[in-house]
Amino acid sequence: xxxxxxxxxxxxxxxxxxxxxxxxxLLLEQQFPKETSTYAEEGTAAHDLxxxxxxxxxxxxxxxxxxxxxSDEMDEYTDTYVEYCLEIIEKVKENCKDLQILIxxxxxxxxxxxxxxxxxxxxxxxxxxxxxxxxxxxIGVIVSAEKNPQMMLxxxxxxxxxxxxxxxxxVTMTIVQPRTDNFSTYEMSVDDLLKWAEEELKPKALLAxxxxxxxxxGKHCRFCRAKNKCRVRAAKNLELLKYEFADPAxxxxxxxxxxxxxxxxxxxxxxxxxxxxxxxAVNEGxxxxxxxxxxxxxxxxxxNEEAVVEAAKSAGYSxxxxxxxxxxxxxxxxxxxxxxxxxxxxxxxxPRGKLTLVSESDKRKAVxxxxxxxxxxx
Length: 378
What we know:
By secondary structure, this protein is of the alpha+beta class.
């Protein structure tokens, strides 16, 4: 969602997972200022560019946005998103000629959440089925569409627009996250969506808007503005202290599994606390017992590259440039995918990724351990 609208819903779809898991957090975080980041700004720029490209592809008026984050990489990944959306349109056209297409559409779900609305990146509705597609430019967290509350809220908003015009039986929700090669799709019946809205969304949203319910710490905390001062989150993460200084080799399998389950969150929590304390020290002069501010190491840099070139050449030094081969992505864009495959396909490989232990809920396919892979049968 690019945030095309200046108004904001208190119950934001992008925060729905956290709010439904920890209903009091909705009002608690209102005490803390909203913060932005280069990642968020880059995401907004990518959404704006994707919106423009999609509109142009559909022969709609649009002015190309300009951003300091524009790059070949962003150009490539927004193309991937647009291509996917166009493919879905063609599939829907096979069964329905009278389809509706909405781009960056305000979607109101206030029938279930007071004042609730969001902005859908791409919505297609035809006979029998509603498609809701969300573009995510982030790379840090792989997002699944399966029972995703944000997507389900968008679907509810889209249904309220079209349920009188079309006999919609199913909803297909897709998250396109091209930088992680993640195209996650989840389909559910309209009956199941409405049941969720009435039985889970509506009562929990009512609690959240009143600031009621039980605090619940978890992975969802990382996006909460109150995360640095939340005592419930602190208590949950400090549970690991019962294993302090224990020899890992002497722990039971059950204890190790428990530690793995919370160690990632503990690391993030510690990082959040450090970032919070550092910001107060740097920006407000806050002093913490046992700590001090120091300057980090920096690298030397040229103040004027043109003047450096001129001075170096005048002194007789001509070999002052490095030549690097452009990246695989840049080369593919230069040649086009087909020519790239024909000319250089046999010279390109994708190395295997480093083996990493993750939760079973992770959508990536499980692989064999190295010792198993290279085991020699006796």
